Amino acid sequence: MLQKYFRLKEHGTTVKTEIMAGLVTFMTMAYIIMVNPALLSNEHGAGMDFSGVMAATCLASFFASLMMGLIARYPIALGPGMGLNAYFSFTICGKMGVPWQVALGIVFISGLVFTVLTLVKVRKMIVDAIPQGLKLATAAGIGLFIAFIGLQHAGIVLKDDATLVKLGDLSHTSTLVSLFGLGLTAVLIARKIRGAILWGLLSTGVLAILTGITEFKGVFGLPNFGTVMFKLDIFKAFSFEYITPIIVLLFFDMFDTIGTLVGVSQQSGLMKNGKLPMINRALLSDSVGTMAGAVAGTSTVTSYIESAAGVAEGGRTGLTSVTTGLLFLVAMFFTPLAQAFAMGSVTAPALIIVGCLMMTNLPKIKWDDLTEAIPAFLTVILMPLTFSIAHGLAIGFISYPIIKLVAGRSDEVHWLVYLLAGVFLLRYVFL
Question: Which of 243, 258, 266, 237 minimizes the C-alpha distance to 302?
């Protein structure tokens, strides 16, 4: 049944490979189980109940990933988006003083707008209109972004007031554990060992526990459903004063999702002739997942770039994301165990290796054509440096038509790219 529904043979994969890939994706994004409730429960932000948000995070990730796997059949998992959760907690609730119940209503409305745009195929048009060079650059840019996150989590790269970044303390215990995991995973991949990233993750996690850098607090824990679930206030959120946060959530989620879908699909070979089959189903999974997340009690749900780790492990179908979703459901009852393996120094090696693997898209860009090369370069470099997929893709969209127009090659640009470039410019001016 699984072979037939997910067309495993057609994609050159097996049930075992897909399940292992789903486990790898889960482990690389399991940190959200702890980080998301930490941000949303902050007393200077939303001030929500920690345990309630933790349960909501698992439920929303389960539902959205399951929907992506069963309906769109893509190996892309979803969860509450980093950056979007900080905006929800510290800007909407903290600075604007919006009660978190109303803020959840704002998230729901933004998800509803996403859904309408998907059903009228506006989002599909945007994906299809993205030039091939920017699609390739998006995949490579996400690779750098993922690697940068991994290097930070490992303590190899640290912030510096004078130079922005600097080399970390390589003698620190947590950094040494990450370096061990990085070396082991690299060797396993080089020797073509099946499940290399997974074995690297598990080995690094065990070493982290043995060295005491992560605390093992047990295995089982009961979720708390009642404090935030069904507490959203949609009616109060329907107010003109909240139009700005709705638009901001709309833009960032839309282009984070588009960037992730394009990048991961390019890496996995799912993109056919520059287009994604069943793209509307994938986008619908994201938008409906956002509404479901708001009902459960968490901030905007989006597609996760960590899905690239599962793809690198061999995941090619929706069975990968179904596996990840089910693991999030199970994790609700095993949060102490998930916490032990979700710390940054454990997952960092996998993210760095995956970032390396995604660099294979760079040679396909037409570097000898500067009208293609410059927008592609800006897209690639700005994703990690602005710490945002959306910003990198936006600058690519703005620079591409401008350079083509100045070069006298405006007819090579889709009309929608001109329109989006104008929209992005207005966004940066007014928002």
Answer: 258
Give me 158's structure tokens: 């640290």
H/E stretch holding 159: strand 157-160
Report whether 134 contacts 376 (CB < 8 A): yes
pLDDT-derived band at 3 (thresholds 50, 70, 90) equals confident
Instruction: Tally the C-alpha atoms within 13 A of residue 93's C-alpha that lie toward its C-beta.
Output: 27
Task: Report in angstroms the alpha-carbon separations of 301 from 68, 206, 292, 345, 418.
Answer: 12, 30, 9, 24, 28
Q: Are 180 and 200 in contact (CB under 8 A)?
A: no
Mean pLDDT of the chain: 87
Query: 82-92: per-residue pLDDT in tens?
Result: 778 888 988 89
pLDDT tens digits, residue range 378-416? 999 998 898 877 788 889 989 999 999 999 999 999 888
Q: Say how far apart CA 83 and CA 114 lie, in whole Å.
A: 18
Q: Residue type for 268, please?
A: S
pLDDT of 153: 86
To the nearest 10°, report the CA torsion of 262, 153, 323, 255: -30
Q: What residues contact 221, with CB distance under 8 A and at least 6 apart?
A: 333, 334, 335, 336
Domain chopping of the chain, boundaries:
11-141+218-339, 366-430
**Reported pTM:** 0.76
- Decide: residue 406, CB within 10 A, 0-12 exposed, 13-18 middle, 19+ buried: exposed
Q: Which two tokens stand for residue 13?
A: 């994969």
Q: Residue 325: name the closest of 336, 310, 340 by CA.
A: 310
For residue 4, how many other CB atoms are within 10 A of its CB?
A: 8
Compute the average pLDDT of residues 265-273: 76
Residue type, 410: S
Cα gap 141→353, rounded to integer Å: 14
**Distance between CA 8 and CA 17 in Å, rounded?**
10
The residues facing 404 across adjacent strands are none
Question: If you search the block for the tokens 């959120």, which residue do you land on?
Answer: 237
Distance CA 138, CA 76 (A): 16
Q: How far apart are CA 29 and CA 36, in angstroms?
A: 11
Q: What Cα–Cα distance (Å) separates residue 85 from each residue in 45, 53, 261?
A: 10, 11, 20
pLDDT (tens digit per residue) in 62-82: 999 999 999 999 999 999 987
